[in-house]
Structure prediction request, 245 residues.
Amino acid sequence: MMNHEKPQHMVKERLAMKSFKVPPLKSFKVPPLRPLLIALTVLVPTALWFIDSMRLRRRLAAAHRDPVTRLPDRATFTTAARHLLRQRGENALVIFCDMAGFKATNDQYGHDAGNQILAATGARLAAWAGPHGIASRLYGDEFAAVTHFAPGQLTDRLAQLHEELHQPVVVGGQVREVAVSIGAATPTNLRSSDLSCLLRGADVAMYEHKNERTGLYRVATHAHADAPSIHGRRIGRPGAASLAN
Prediction:
């Protein structure tokens, strides 16, 4: 006669299933949607505004830079340079540079090659001026910079500048020699911290260096500050007339 009693383990499983109760739906807590929607309403427009703001800042920054060298334009340079002069006092250093023979190089190798040389020169001048200085392309192949020097280190700083700016530039696989005339001015030598006066002195000193072709650079004296000028540029230099307007 067959035994119809269920095995003990099956009985225990059935009892366990009977004792399990599915919790009612209301016991599950669903996160409220209203606070989430409110957060999204605030965060999404804010994120979009931030992205648009960054794009606008980049466009404005690009608008205030020289298109060839990417250096700050003249207006930006002037504002920053005056601030640096007030900040650095007697240790401020103003540089005026002119690329010797650039027109011939530009005519011989083309404007693209000339622009690459200008860009390389601007990058080297900016690197020399450092993160706490500023450099700018003022006009054509003329550059200016304002930075500082440690006491007793003026000669070394200017010698370093000469070396940096006279490194050859590789253009289209060809090595092009670069020559730059350098004029420097300090508030102590010119007895002035006015930017126009210092630029004028550095410009005249640079012009002497270019004509005499001696030494690595020329440092302006008080006599250089008396040269006639328009907004710091010696009269007769290219672009001086446009600054009078």
User: Anything to note?
Assistant: The CA atoms of residues 181 and 210 lie 5 Å apart. The chain is about 50% helix and 15% strand. Confidence is low (pLDDT under 50) at residues 56-62, 240-245. The chain has two domains: 31-61, 69-243.
